[in-house]
Amino acid sequence: xxxxxxxxxxxxxxxxxxxxxxxxxxxxxxxxxxxxxxxxxxxxxxxxxxxxxxxxxxxxxxxxxxxxxxxxxxxxxxxxxxxxxxxxxxxxxxxxxxxxxxxxxxxxxxxxxxxxxxxxxxxxxxxxxxxxxxxxxxxxxxxxxxxxxxxxxxxxxxxxxxxxxxxxxxxxxxxxx
Length: 177
Prior knowledge:
This protein is mostly helical. The protein is built from 7 helices and no strands.
């Protein structure tokens, strides 16, 4: 409705786009819709895309299930709550099918993001790792280049006049008169 008010004040689409932070193309389309159908044609039709297949109370339950973690729902081998597992969980609990991308969007909407835990062996010996880093890693680690072993190249081609005699390209055909 704000766009309709601006168009009534005879403000052009580029300025409407700037003020409402939309593309110029959108502002031009809105102007055409407004001319054809008046201000009512510019009323928002809501979010695009398909409607959510879960009711609001089911979304709350799903958020609770996700908060419990994967182990609470039978995935004990690791604690990764991947989108494929969310699809399976939704199917088990609500008997509704979702695609992996749809489940990803749904979890983002609920405030969750993909989490990958730090993979560490349960039997990891921190002292042995520290000793290895100090003793062995120093020997294995690749040494850096010596100070004088750097490569230099031109970033722009020199003029033909700067070329030494007999250098590639130093022939009468390559010179311009």
